[in-house]
Design goal:
Rossmann fold, alpha/beta
Length: 260
């Protein structure tokens, strides 16, 4: 992408609403990814979803016709594990979440326990139980530090919105008075950890996203060039409502191909 800052050598792109929608590849997504490979750009596909491992997500993308090796996927679970490892190496955590989160924490040397953990780590799950939330509340009250993978309060499904990490975090906060530290978007920390993963630099990296309130604001705060596509959560008429603006607005990822 040629801007006043020069050509982007690295690209970060959101997954849902940019490359895929409800399991189907969006027009231009495969060509965009191929262009990144052809131009030898370093890139990562990002998602706030912490349920799945990168291997799971790679397989899901392949079913939609998009070839993205697992090492090119960066999730809020991986960013959370990276953050905790930097804060307290070889610590312990009680996890409310799925394999994407527990696997990421295991891989950075964390011990998962219900007994005096250093952290309670909340991620996305489709099987929240009253028992697991109660246990998390009691551990936080006993002094465990409260971390959550992302602040999204709802997630999409074919039947309509589902309660997500932010909604469950609010329950724990209401019961304990403890606010979680959210690692995923819109925290620019997720982008910084992604850049570290691919040895990228903010001044030569572009972020492509579909949400002004997560992708674009976090990209701006991380010092990245930003591109908003209108195939996801944000409509064209919504953009002017925000006190910040993306570097570019494109109808879809198909229009971004020529910027690589």
């Amino acid at each position: 992408m040629t801007t006043e800052r020069g050509e982007s050598q690295c690209w970060l792109t959101d997954m849902d609403g940019v490359l895929v929608h409800e399991g189907q590849a969006l027009p231009g997504a495969a060509e965009f990814l191929q262009r990144l490979v052809d131009r030898q750009r370093r890139f990562l596909v990002l998602t706030n979803n912490s349920i799945f491992t990168p291997r799971d997500l790679s397989a899901r993308l392949a079913r939609s016709g998009l070839q993205v090796p697992e090492e090119f996927i960066w999730t809020s679970a991986l960013a959370t594990a990276d953050f905790l490892s930097s804060q307290l190496p070889a610590g312990s955590a009680h996890v409310v979440g799925e394999a994407g989160l527990t696997t990421a924490l295991h891989e950075v040397g964390y011990t998962l326990t219900d007994t005096d953990p250093d952290y309670v780590v909340l991620g996305e799950t489709r099987t929240y139980s009253f028992e697991s939330i109660t246990r998390a509340i009691r551990l936080v009250e006993r002094g465990a530090r409260f971390i959550a993978t992302n602040p999204d309060v709802t997630g999409p499904s074919p039947e309509g919105p589902l309660p997500a990490t932010g909604a469950v975090a609010a329950m724990i906060t209401k019961a304990t008075g403890a606010e979680p530290y959210f690692v995923g978007k819109p925290n620019p920390m997720m982008f910084r950890s992604a850049l570290n993963r691919i040895d990228g630099h903010s001044e030569s990296t572009t972020m492509v996203g579909d949400r002004m309130d997560t992708d674009i604001v976090a990209g701006i705060e991380a010092g990245l060039e930003t591109v908003l596509v209108l195939t996801g959560s944000t409509r064209a008429e919504d953009v002017a409502r925000f006190p910040f603006r993306p570097g570019r607005v494109c109808d879809s990822i198909a229009q971004v191909i020529d910027l690589v």
